[in-house]
Design a protein that fits this description.
heterodimer; A: Multidrug efflux transporter AcrB transmembrane fold; Alpha-Beta Plaits; four-stranded antiparallel β-sheet; 11 helices; 4 strands; 72% helix; B: alpha+beta; 19% strand
């Protein structure tokens, strides 16, 4: 084997080794602590949800949205003006697109005629471009039910697949709990940032099921199937791989979130980002804690 | 070196990837991408049937709507029935909110058509055998000529004999079998001669609709909701231009009730026509009162300006032509995206996709400090996107925003799994330099166990989205599933081969 050719991978391995060193503190944590902290975060997330559930988007509760592109306005002022003219409460948001053009979104209760809002806006901003959508509360009800059903079934399907792959209750349950906690935390953070629960964000939560299981599967496989390394070594190698995985995905999603002004794309990206961050803790701290504690008892997985 | 390069290029996994890439580029070139209405601009409507229907009826509804919208002069329409009560209608190339709202009206008008004379229904929508092109006259009056069946014409001739000048009424979706509650002025107008087309002997409109359609008209004199419920005696109550509170109260009492608002500036006769879906009344011509059946008739009207005249004529024409829907539809969700905004979204998605690829390239480089890893990882992701798009073009999948989100999410998972492969190949700290072929194979096998397991979970989760979600999010599930399948069968195996060549085996 020519030495010249191995030089690069050798360097790469050194870089990996360094990053592994940085992550060593995780490997040195006590398994009990590794299990406790994420559990506390999960319970806090549950409590947060109880008091501060994310607002429902119009496609889940019904309502009207009018989007005007090419309008540069103070949203609070416009909100007052529109509410006064229409005789009902509206909510106005502003946004800037990547090309620099500004726009506003007007949210009104179900049953409002979007044309009336557009007519008023058109008088003030004749050059703006308008788009609207309206959803009846009955559709919202249906979408809510379907969303719940889709999430529950998807979760069960995921759990079944995980069981089939690992055939061990402890490691499977740890993965399933991680995914549950990821979703719970993501929804709780949505509540904090007032990101609406919509059909799009429900889809993102479903996506999260697929995403987060990835890293958990990696961890479980490495810890239980790689017999030639020590547990600590296997954990470190898994965590450094996981770190690379998460940061690249986060990078891609961050780009989507920064560049798009479409609420659909923005919200999907945001929810996935929250979920991935939560997953980092749940996989590499909680799930790893469970597995290390379990393996330290000398049980064969 | 060259020999090795040749060997890697001739590896069947790599060949498969190249084949898919060429096929995708060909498919993109030949068929092009089609975009969803949230990108190309247009209207997406979700309508619900009044009650659940069987699959046969659903088929009929879809067919009839398709025809009706086609007659309306629209192209690029897709009508799709979902489940037993949902119809999704997507129409591209709609450029104004007015047009969008008109579409909603057409979908919601069931188009039950009645022709009535002297309190007798002599024909319905089924009796219409031909509809001619509508005409607009310079004074903004319009006419839609049509032909009725022989039996309807005969019945009519008998009814109309000797009653020249009497009113002929036509109704589109009148509130049959109902109690109509109206304010005093409307009540008086309906019971007077305003709708008699100048024939004082003919029965007033209120009487005609009572006899023909079982619509009882009562004047609103501050009756309570309870009193109205008693008078209605089980019939639907239609509140027109009376206090809105009554609607809520009746609704709370579980009474079937409809509310029709009187728009400011509408005169009483126009309001009555709106409530009843009344076209006419048309004065019976001398030529039709002689007892001789006549099959060629027409509906005429008058509007404030040419645009409105055209719109009215077109609506009547469409409804006459496409017949009645077997069940009434209600639009429960409507989304209108202007083509310009859609174009912006498309550009953003394109930039976001490219930026995501660049981000992946840089982050992977940062992690490994090795372009030999970063470039193959990022290009594999790029290839994956090209293949997903190629398949979308091939199956004529309409790319909408959720589909694009799915593609970008696929970049995310794809990279994850390539990182898993790379790290398995790099191996542990010390073993990196001594990784041998057998070791590499074993490691790749382990990487693929992880990849298959996570692919299986993603597909399982997404399948439920595909099956259980109504409306517009199916695209997300479809592109994600395509992405995952392409990933496990085509791109990841090829990447593993290339990566083994570049970092593992040397």
């Amino acid at each position: 084997m020519a030495k010249g050719k191995t030089q690069k991978p050798g360097q790469t391995a050194e870089v990996r080794a360094k990053s592994r060193e940085k992550l060593r503190f995780l490997a040195e944590m006590e398994p009990k602590k590794m299990i406790t902290y994420p559990l506390v975060v999960f319970i806090v997330a549950l409590l947060l949800l109880a008091v501060h559930f994310p607002p429902l988007g119009i496609d889940l509760k019904g309502g009207v949205v009018v989007t005007g592109e090419g309008i540069s306005a103070n949203p609070d002022q416009l909100e007052k003006e529109l509410s006064g003219k229409l005789g009902l409460e509206v909510h106005v948001e502003s946004f800037t697109s990547v090309s620099g053009s500004k726009g506003i979104r007007v949210y009104a209760p179900a049953g409002t005629d979007p044309q009336k809002i557009i007519d008023i806006l058109k008088e003030k901003y004749p050059n703006a471009d308008f788009t609207h959508s309206e959803v009846q509360p009955t559709f919202g009800e249906m979408a809510k039910k379907q969303g719940m059903r889709a999430i529950i079934f998807a979760f069960i399907a995921m759990a079944v697949v995980v069981f089939l792959f690992f055939r061990n209750p402890v490691s499977s349950l740890a993965i399933i709990f991680s995914a549950l906690s990821d979703m719970t935390i993501a929804v709780a953070v949505m509540g904090i940032f007032r990101i609406q629960l919509t059909t799009a964000t429900i889809a993102a939560l479903l996506m999260l099921i697929g995403y987060t299981v990835d890293s958990n599967i990696l961890l479980t496989t490495k810890l239980t199937k790689r017999k030639e390394d020590t547990i600590e070594e296997a954990y470190l190698s898994a965590v450094s791989t996981g770190f690379t995985m998460s940061t690249t995905t986060l990078g891609a999603l961050l780009m989507l979130w920064i560049i798009s002004t479409s609420p659909v794309l923005d919200n999907i990206a945001a929810v996935l980002i929250f979920g991935l961050l939560a997953d980092f803790m749940n996989t590499w701290i909680f799930n790893a804690g469970v597995l290390r504690w379990y393996l330290s008892r000398g049980v064969e997985l | 070196m060259n020999r090795k390069l040749k060997r890697i290029l001739l590896n069947w996994k790599v060949l498969l990837l190249i084949l898919f890439l060429i096929g995708s580029i060909g498919s993109l070139y030949a068929r092009g991408l089609t975009f969803g209405i949230d990108i190309s601009g247009g209207v997406a409507l979700i309508a619900q049937t009044e009650e659940p229907v069987d699959s046969k009826t659903m088929e009929l509804v879809v067919d009839s709507l398709q025809k009706r919208l086609n007659t309306f002069g629209l192209r690029d329409i897709s009508v799709e029935g979902q489940g037993n009560s949902i119809v999704v209608v997507k129409v591209a190339n709609v450029s104004s909110t007015e047009e969008a709202n008109q579409l909603k009206q057409v979908i919601e008008s069931q188009g039950v058509f009645f022709m009535e004379f002297n309190g007798v229904v002599f024909g319905t929508g089924k009796d219409i055998t031909y509809v001619g092109p509508y005409e607009i006259k310079p004074d903004n009056s319009w006419a839609v000529p049509f032909r009725i069946s022989k039996s309807a014409a005969e019945k009519f001739a008998e009814l109309a004999k000797g009653k020249a000048g009497w009113p002929v009424d036509m109704f589109l979706d009148p509130p049959v079998n109902s109690l109509l509650v109206v304010p005093q002025d409307v009540f008086i107008t309906m019971n007077g001669t305003a709708f008699n087309a100048g024939a004082p002997d003919a029965p007033p409109l209120a009487l005609r609709i009572k006899k023909a359609l079982n619509i009882t008209t009562v004047m609103y004199t501050n009756q309570s909701a309870r009193e109205l419920k008693e008078i209605a005696n089980g019939k639907t109550i239609v509140l027109a231009g009376v206090p809105r509170e009554l609607y809520d109260q009746l609704k709370a009492m579980n009474v079937s009730v409809k509310y029709i608002q009187s728009e400011a500036g509408t005169d009483t006769t126009t309001f009555v026509k709106e409530i009843l879906g009344l076209y006419g009344p048309y004065s019976l011509g001398e030529g039709l009162a002689n007892g001789v059946p006549q099959t060629d008739v027409q509906i005429t009207g008058h509007a404030a300006n040419r645009v409105k005249a055209e719109r009215e004529a077109k609506t009547v024409y469409t409804v006459l032509k496409s017949g009645s829907l077997p069940v009434k539809l209600r639009v429960i969700s409507m989304e209108f995206i202007s083509p310009k905004l859609g174009q912006d979204f498309k550009n953003q998605a394109l930039y976001a996709g490219l930026a995501a690829l660049v981000a992946v390239l840089l982050i992977v480089y940062f992690h490994y400090r090795n372009w030999k890893i970063a470039i193959p990882v990022a290009s594999t992701s790029l290839f994956e996107v090209i293949i997903i798009l190629g398949i979308a073009a091939l199956i004529k999948w309409n790319l909408d925003l959720p589909s694009i989100a799915g593609i970008i999410a696929a970049i995310g998972t794809g990279v994850d799994q390539q990182v898993v492969i790379t790290d398995e190949l790099l191996g542990g700290e010390r073993s990196a330099r001594i990784t041998r072929r057998a070791g590499a194979l074993k490691r790749i096998g382990r990487a693929f166990f992880i990849i298959f397991a996570s692919a299986a979970t993603t597909i399982a989760a997404m399948s439920f989205l595909l099956v259980y979600f109504v409306g517009t999010l199916k695209g997300f599930a479809v592109t994600t599933i395509i992405g995952v399948l392409i990933g496990i069968f085509v791109t990841r195996p090829a990447y593993a081969e290339v990566a083994r060549y570049l970092i593992g085996e040397e």
